[in-house]
Amino acid sequence: MPPHDDRKRRFELLALPHLDAAFNLARWLAGNATDAEDVVQDAYLRAYRYFDAWQGGNFRVWLLTIVRNSFLTWVKENRGARLVFHPDAPTGDTAETEHTAWGTAPRDPESLLLERIDSQTLARLMQRLPAEYREVLLLREVEDLSYKEIATVTDVPIGTVMSRLARARLALRRLWQREEHAEATHGV
Amino acid sequence: MACDRIRPLLPQLADRALGPLRRLTVTRHVAHCASCAAQLEELEAMRTALRTRLTFHRAPPGLAARIGAALPREAPPAASRPWLRMPALGFAGTGLAGALAGVALTLVVAGVKPAVDDPTSAAIDSHIRSLMADHLTDVQTSDQHTVKPFLSARLPVSPAVPELAAQGFPLVGGRLDYVDGHPAAAVVYRHAKHVINLFAWASPGAPDAPFSATQRQGFNVVSWRREGVAYTAVSDVEADQLATFARDVAR
Questions:
Q1: Which of B43, B96, B201, B227 could form a disulfide with B184 if both were Cys (CB 3.0 to 4.6 A apart)?
Q2: ipTM attached to this prediction
Q3: Which residues of chain A are within 8 Å of residue B48 when distances are taken between CB atoms?
Q4: d(CA B217, CA B125)
Q5: Mutate to test the interface with B, among A102, A112, A147, A154 (most CBs of B within 10 A)
Q6: Contact B178, B213 (CB under 8 A)
Q7: Do B196 and B165 meet the contact criterion of CB atoms below 8 Å apart?
Q8: What pLDDT, in 10s, does the model give residues A109-126?
Q9: Which chain B residue's Cα is nearest to A28?
Q10: What is the DSSP code (8-state) at residue A142?
Q11: Are B93 and A69 a contacting pair at CB < 8 A?
């Protein structure tokens, strides 16, 4: 087998099993299937080009890093200079409020609301989160990556991963509470 | 310990990211602190909601083929270059990209690794094939009393097929496989959205061997040997989870 074909075969063996993971991340970031396909295809071509640079760590982490970079390139080319990931400047959510904003009363009736959320509502609320919050929640809860692995994929320090994750959870919780509140007021 | 010192650790507890000592400190506190317990419960509820109810978008059917067809057109890289630089990419659009130009992902070119012929690599290859070929199971059932006889009747090995749904590892089914020259049983479990292949093949006369964990090609692998049967579990679940799985199987 010529070395080129062998390289391709090795790449496919490693990369194709993670295609669903790559597509899911791209789909949640881009917001629709057509764009996600473009992003994933670009990411795979890019990964193939840089395959020899992979050092034998967790291949899925390496691949998702490239998917994310492909998404950022795609955004730049297709959505102009619109800001997608905004920096982690505190937006009123200081470390103090992060920890106190959660339910504190014993068996706070609101504390278990998230247990009842349905898939459709959850998806809609996720789509309303800033991309960087959506991304960190996906990498943590769906891809089951460690803080360190998320730091690798998103190219930020572990401390930033942890504070971003805290803010993301708080933001999702607020959206959900608002949703519940609106339903209660409008009797929907 | 006071709540204000415990609170910041609750997300790490929910994320299974605390070491054993701190985990003990935090769980002890939570056991008799209603407000910290409520917060932890809420974190767990969100974790469960995202893990079980967030839509997982699988790749559309034609995508793998399209990517495969596009690959050969990409020229192989110049192998002689010692360093490759990925393009630097910022968090923002073009406006802020310049400010972040220093953030470049530098990657070292590793030599082309030769294919390793050992049971671990063979098990990983088999795991990958099972996911790619859409041939995960020969017998698809969550009933251990169906899977075990199916495998035992067709193989020179009678593998352990414990019921582990309560521990978070529901049984999916069984498959006949071939690992490193051995006819092998592949018992398939799931953990959240991840597939775990538990391979078992006869290793008569070999002494029992303790758990040995390794990570390769993005997969975690745990191997052990007991009563003349060699076991290897392969998955992309977290190393800790796979170790727990292995202990539960061997129990």
A1: B201
A2: 0.84
A3: 115
A4: 10
A5: A102
A6: no
A7: no
A8: 554 566 678 889 999 999
A9: B57
A10: I
A11: no
